[in-house]
Amino acid sequence: MKQPYKVLVLDDNHDILIASRIFLKQHFAQVVTLHEPALLVSTLQDPPDSLPFDVLLLDMNFSRDTQSGEEGLFYLKQALKAQPKLKVVMMTAYAALPLAVKAMQSGAANFIAKPWQNEQLLQTLQQALQQPTQHTSVQQSQASRAASENTATDTIPLLGDSPAMQQVLRTIEKVAATDANVLLLGESGTGKALVAQAIHQASKRAAAPFVSVDMGSLSTSLLESELFGHKKGAFTDAKSDYAGRFVEASGGSLLLDELANLALPQQAKLLTALQNRTVVPVGASQAVAVDIRLICATNENLYQAVAEGSFRQDLLYRINTVEMVLPPLRDRKEDILLLLDWYLQHYSQRYQRDGLQISVADKRTLQSYDWPGNVRQLAHAVERAVVLAEGSMLDFSQLQSTTIAPVATTEQTAETDFFLEFVEEKTIRQALQYYQGNVSQAAKALGLTRGALYRRLEKYGL
């Protein structure tokens, strides 16, 4: 049964308005959408049926002000002035925690990050509708509590105000509305897994499972069983039936990470499964139907792999209906300060360390650094600094002395230093030495999976 509430949605993105109207009309008596923020006050003052709106879902970033959120805060205040008892839920594509807190301090009932999960959106609106009218002091307390809960979670938002990240977020919104196969390309640590989760959460499959498989961590002998399942007794360790990741993800989304590690024989079987939309468990004779949304990710150049004969061209065509290339952090340096602030709050909350800061000098240094491990390396650096902090100011000198090395002059650089394999081997040796042989920590710092690092260790005889 629909709830007897009137919902107003204001966003200058037509796709967001269509998606929100289709979903919310299933749950609320009336849903009105607005594309032009200038019409907000007049719509609130003269609503359809002359009955006031109960809740407003308001975007924080409009096309004239895509980054600061100030325009969204302006319309929040205008809405509450026009209708003081209105419940307002703010939405932002950038999931900027301080901005969301500021909105709640200004009178918003709650906030939600785009792309959202449908059930999460419904729950957020229902919670807002159930809240009594609050005084500012209570709203500030709620904002602080929400900030604490948001920061304590391990869910990492897609952060970035840069044009490159805005393009990524826009693409996510478009892709999520379809069931098209998606291929995510980009260096290690650029957030491919986060993008995959965001696509799933914004899709019609959001209520179904999201299953991720790290192809680099699976041996060739076990990969087929892991993906397609097996029957009891199919091999020595098969002590019971196992459904496999494809069946587990049926109805939802399946992420195949580190896809380039898939050997040619397994590529052929994957292609067959995708074409037939069925899988045959190891030791079985009957195919099992599956319904998945496939997302693949890799930091390797699959087009080069096709040219070299190590990756099937027909499989590449099958998985890259939509191809997204995630930008490395060095190409969106304007996002570094935002990331530093977010991870500082995140890890300060996790490790219960209050009052920690990053000096202005360190921020300048960290913003000029190229971050070869991308966002993953930055997060690790902040976490380490928070854990080891002895005063209120974080210390990044160890990071700088081990990874931010001065640029060598022409005279200091040997010709072999320009060979990628030489540089890679040298970097891996340094990481292993720094972490005293701990492969897991070295892999994390390098932005690699353990399986990927083990393959490189074998390659270089380390």
Task: Give structural notes.
- The protein is of the alpha/beta class and 462 residues long.
- It folds into four domains: 3-152, Rossmann fold, CATH 3.40.50.2300; 163-325, 3-Layer(aba) Sandwich (Rossmann fold), CATH 3.40.50; 329-405, Orthogonal Bundle (Helicase, Ruva Protein, domain 3); 408-462, Orthogonal Bundle (Arc Repressor Mutant, subunit A), CATH 1.10.10.
- The chain contains 20 helices and twelve strands.
- It has helices spanning 14-24, 40-45, 70-82, 97-105, 118-130, 136-152, 163-176, 192-201, 220-228, 245-248, 264-276, 302-308, 313-319, 336-350, 360-368, 374-388, 397-402, 420-434, 439-446, 450-460, and strands at residues 3-10, 28-34, 55-59, 87-92, 110-113, 182-185, 210-214, 253-257, 278-279, 288-289, 293-298, 322-325.
- A five-stranded parallel sheet has the order 2-1-3-4-5, sandwiched between helices. Strands 7-8-11-6-12 form a five-stranded parallel sheet. A two-stranded antiparallel sheet has the order 9-10.
- A hairpin with an 8-residue loop joins strand 9 (278-279) and strand 10 (288-289).
- The longest helix is centred in the first third of the chain and has 17 residues, at 136-152.
- The protein is globular, with a radius of gyration of 25 Å.
- The termini are far apart.
- 37% of the residues are buried.
- The model is unreliable at 134-154 and 401-418 (pLDDT under 50).
Features:
Rossmann fold, alpha/beta, 5-stranded parallel beta sheet, 462 residues, 20 helices
CATH H-level superfamily title of the largest domain: P-loop containing nucleotide triphosphate hydrolases
CA radius of gyration is: 25 Å
The CATH level-2 architecture of the largest domain is identified as 3-Layer(aba) Sandwich
Unreliable residue runs: 134-154, 401-418
The CATH class of the largest domain is identified as Alpha Beta
Shape designation: globular
Structural class: alpha/beta
* Range of strand content: 5-15%
Spatial strand arrangement across the major sheet: 2-1-3-4-5
Number of strands: 12
Average pLDDT for all residues = 82
Distance between the termini: 64 Å
Query: What's the number of helices?
Result: 20
Largest sheet geometry: 5 strands, parallel
Q: Tell me the number of structural domains.
A: 4
CATH topology of the largest domain: Rossmann fold
- Helicity level: 40-55%
